[in-house]
Amino acid sequence: MPQSLPLPRPLPLLQADCANCFALCCVALPFAKSNDFAVNKPAGTPCKNLRQDLRCGIHTRLRDQGFQGCTVFDCFGAGQQVSQVTFGGRDWRTRPETRAEMFDVFPVMRQLHELLFYVDQALALPDAAPVHPDLRRLLAETEQWTRADAGALAALDVAALRGRVNTLLLKTSELVRSKVPGRRKNHRGADLMGARLSGANLRGANLRGAYLIAADLSGADLRTADLIGADLRDANLRGADLRGAVFLTQPQLNAAHGDPKTHIPDTLTRPTHWT
After folding, report:
1. Contact predicate 153/109, CB 8 Å
2. For residue 19, what are the contacts with CB-CB under 8 A and spacing of at least 6?
3. Among 38, 44, 67, 82, which residue's beta carbon has the most beta carbons within 10 A?
4. Of 62, 55, 21, 28, whose CA–CA distance to 44 is shortest?
5. Where is this region: Disordered (predicted)?
6. What phi, psi does 85 have (nearest 5°)?
């Protein structure tokens, strides 16, 4: 990597563009038969639902067919970055020599794009202004890595980079949540699976990495709560208020259940399966 950072550039697209990807999430990644996937699939093997045109044959029926896991996965745009930038549009089907390396690089790129997503979110928070300069430096460094060649990406210590980013994201969370009046609950990494939290005051709470699978959060106040890494699979968010939630992602919403009374950030989309 060069020692000097580049001038700021537009970030790579941080959402999936399947039309410009070689179906990497459907081929490179493994599936384990579970409530999220109807079948086992080894890494590097195309999903049985993948068509010849690299599109999903059951895309509109994934939940009905037992592939809920596909509806909550997000590559954050890593698929098209690997396909079109790292490998310059070389398709693993017609250029089989790229196959193993491409599939190895994809998970690394996915992590880089996820970090870009979170840092970009942090930079949009005015209360985090004290750490914005450091965030911008890490944003530039991470963005530069997304343009590295396959060999450099395979050798990258992405865990170390993630650790540096996470330190700043923690500071961001603390700065933002410190503006919430009163005592703020700390449930970081807590096992709250199936917890009865209907109507709970969780405003400004620390829910980083919390297990909220099938938790009842109906009517809960989750404004400005830190939800990075929180597992919201089958959580009941009907009537909950998630406005201003810190580091909430679209896949987390897609994994949960909500209704028209659920308040979500303007930057996210109401999932189609919510009733």
Report:
1. yes
2. none
3. 82
4. 28
5. 256-275
6. -105, -60
